């Protein structure tokens, strides 16, 4: 049996008054920041001396790759917030969206930003070309109730954007949202879209809680990972309900999923999966957030309920958020390898 050295770390949480929506209360949610590679975190929720974002449910985080002091967060009910000082303070923006599940920054022109969420009950994608000051709706769903649940930008073409919807549609624009083409329609909602950094023609889609669908030809054809022909004696599938997914920032074919039965890793585009040797007490808890460190493809960070686990060689550093909310999103600073952000939300 493999034994793990476990380091227990505790989160320093300051009691801040106020919230984005008015009133007062402790900062139990919002954003937390680590400056030591995920070993410890502190809340970074201040708007001003009277208010914070501590009661906002954070669904998405994006850091400007050309200026990592600029950070955008999307929330469930409070539109979005922007920080220009590395998350020390926040200013509320006005994209006219709720349920902002995704924020992506064009890596070639970081003044161009895309957000997805609900506008007057309909799933929408909005675009800003001035760093978030003004927004234009570039995609809208035809009916109420369907949200845009996944957005990813091509690593080689900032005008090529892929989206997935809660209705199962995967679509793409080649011209920054001016027009769109349909690529695929799944039987259930698309929870996440990722491009394989080592093989940019490969796109992965996390479908509902049961499947990963992949395209190896830049969206021309798709196939279900569950339905691949495999030798079940030697090529196992992941187990449990799927909640999160990440891909290697440098190695092609490496995809990792978080489920309610652990964490599973594939090194051959989803053909076979092996369980990651996680802390046993996290098995049975839905893994809502998981991320491979973009600066170190051997380091994995995942969240189980109110705790965060960062791999350190053959051990796990464990951080207690001391919050009554669940970690829903993990984001690494693209410039500073020591900085990691958490977004927390209420989970029913």
CATH architecture: 7 Propeller
Q: Give me the number of helical elements.
A: 0
Compute the number of strand runs.
31
User: How large is the share of residues in beta strands?
Assistant: 35-45%
**At the third CATH level, what is the topology name?**
Methylamine Dehydrogenase, Chain H
Structurally, the number of domains stands at 1
Structural class: mainly beta
Enumerate the spans where pLDDT stays under 50 for 5 or more consecutive residues. Answer: 1-19, 21-26
Average residue-wise pLDDT: 91
Shape by Cα distribution:
globular
Outline the biggest β-sheet. Answer: 5 strands, mixed
Order of strands in the sheet with most strands? 1-29-28-27-26
Q: Give me the CATH superfamily.
A: YVTN repeat-like/Quinoprotein amine dehydrogenase
Outline the fold blueprint:
Blueprint lengths: L5 E5 L19 E5 L7 E2 L2 E3 L2 E2 L5 E6 L7 E5 L4 E4 L7 E2 L5 E8 L7 E7 L2 E7 L7 E5 L7 E6 L7 E5 L3 E5 L7 E5 L4 E6 L7 E5 L3 E5 L7 E2 L17 E6 L7 E5 L2 E5 L7 E2 L13 E4 L7 E5 L2 E6 L2 E6 L5 E7 L7 E6 L3
Parallel strand pairs: 1-29
Antiparallel strand pairs: 2-3, 2-31, 4-5, 6-7, 7-8, 8-9, 10-11, 11-12, 12-13, 14-15, 15-16, 16-17, 18-19, 19-20, 20-21, 22-23, 23-24, 24-25, 26-27, 27-28, 28-29, 30-31
